[in-house]
Amino acid sequence: MSAFLKIRKIFLAVSLFVVWLSPAVALAQDPGLAESNFANVLDGILAHSCLRKQNVGVNIYSLDKDKTLYSFQSNRLFAPASNMKLLTTAMALKRMGPDYRFKTRLFATMRVVEETLNGDLYIKGFGDPNLVSEQMWLLANELRNLPLRKIDGNIIADDSFFDDQRRIKTWGKKGGAEAHNAPLGALSFNFNTVTVHVSPGEKPGDRPVVVVDPDIDFIQIENRAKTVSRSRRSRLIVNRVDRGSHNQITVSGVISVSHSRETYYLNITQPTHYAAKVFKEYLSRAGVEVTGEARVASVPEDAYDLSNHTSVPLSLILRGLNKFSNNFVAEQILKTIGAELYGQPGTTENGLRAMEEYMLSLGHESGQFRVLDGSGLSRQNRLSPDQIVSVLRDMYSNFGVYPEFVSALGVMGRDGNVHRRMNGHNGSEKARVKTGTLSFISTLSGYFQSADGERFAFSILMNDLKCSNGRAWSLQDRIVREGLKFERETKGTELD
């Protein structure tokens, strides 16, 4: 054996001995293997019997590496349900800005003299979807502090900032009394809903105690329900009936004497008249006497501004829109976009026109998608996971709107309508999502950050489900959990 070979043999032996004495070093995982393993796991999840494979699409896209991590039928079109609100939110932030504020203006044709307005008071709405009890009280109090103590005239409401279409055509001919079916209007109050509280009577045989909020003469109660013994099961039916001059809340069925208070949310009809009635009542509570009635008409051309009220910033309203998936807010925003971009009155059609222009700007051709409302309640909407991810990517790349966009999404396991999903899972707060739910349809899209800090946009669209939406949620949550723990490379670690 040559001297060189002897030296080489000794060197190798010493090297192996040194490695044996040194702490062990874990080998780094092949990035390609990590992606392959991830794909295999997701393929297994999507093979669940709950899903019809031809009606499921998924796209998981790396925002950091600018490439797709996983896709399954991601270019196919599906009904997105409330994932449509992602487009509405993106449009609102880009075209109106995070600091946009909705107005509600008060007008008069006569001057206030000695704290009295001898004439009608006009209230005009400009689409505010967040004119709720607190905001209406501020509006009444602002008027009271002019100062004003008496209005010797009527309260006249003007909703001409929007057209007179109360519902979206593709929602069907007639909607029920459910809160998510609330009608639209440029002047609206409390999402055009009424709250009904029902408590058991003191003893079996008594009528339950029914309380409505707001308590105004436009809302009347017909209580046919009965309190029953502890041994009987509660079964209440609470409904809203349009009686023309007023809305009637009907309560029937039975409630156990030991049952806790129940709360129901129902929509109302005639939103402009409803808002005017509420405003008249709030003025009275603020100490402003109104001698006339609540009516609906236009503000005269010779009227002057008496007071102006502005909403909270759009960025805050969008949190309520997405975290709790409020259909009414989405459609009000869509009509407002139409009015701001193409002139009054605001229409759903002009809002959709702006939406289509936005999708075209992202590179999607007309005819490759179908957008028919701003909320996703229409079952005829069609989007692909690729298209939704393109919206998420567009928002992510624009720091002028991205912070407000992502903060409006639900934090998995923490808030909104996903506060119970993945609750307790370590790192669930690193997923920001928008849900979508209709009968036999369940969707989930948003962002997440993986275990090694990589950021992703994703969209999961499931249609024609063969199981409950709850089971579909669990499959979506499994996909998100796999994304949260994904690592392209396992870092080397020393082992003693």
For the sheet with most strands, the description reads:
6 strands, antiparallel
CATH class of the largest domain reads Alpha Beta
Fraction of residues in H or I helices: 25-40%
* Total beta strands: 24
The CATH homology group name of the largest domain: DD-peptidase/beta-lactamase superfamily
Strand-pairing-aware structural class: alpha/beta
| Model regions low in confidence, pLDDT < 50 over at least 5 residues | 3-27
The Cα radius of gyration reads 29 Å
Helix tally? 11
Under the CATH scheme, the architecture of the largest domain is 3-Layer(aba) Sandwich
Strand order in the sheet with the most strands = 3-2-23-22-21-20
- Quick one: overall form? globular
Task: Please give a structural write-up.
- With 496 residues, the chain is α/β, with parallel strands linked by helices.
- It has 3 domains: 31-99 and 315-484, Beta-lactamase; 103-167 and 271-312, D-Ala-D-Ala carboxypeptidase C, peptidase S13 (D-tyrosyl-trna(Tyr) Deacylase, Chain: A, 3-Layer(bba) Sandwich); 190-267, no CATH class.
- Helices cover 30% and strands 24% of the residues.
- The protein has 11 helices and 24 strands.
- It has helices at residues 3-21, 31-46, 85-95, 133-144, 271-285, 314-323, 327-342, 348-361, 385-396, 402-407, 469-484, and strands at residues 24-25, 56-62, 67-72, 103-108, 112-113, 116-117, 121-125, 150-151, 155-158, 193-199, 209-213, 219-223, 226-228, 235-242, 247-256, 262-267, 289-290, 294-296, 304-310, 410-411, 431-438, 441-449, 455-462, 494-495.
- Strand 21 (431-438) and strand 22 form a beta hairpin.
- Helix 2 (31-46) packs antiparallel against helix 11 (469-484), helix 3 packs antiparallel against helix 6 and helix 3 packs parallel to helix 7 (327-342).
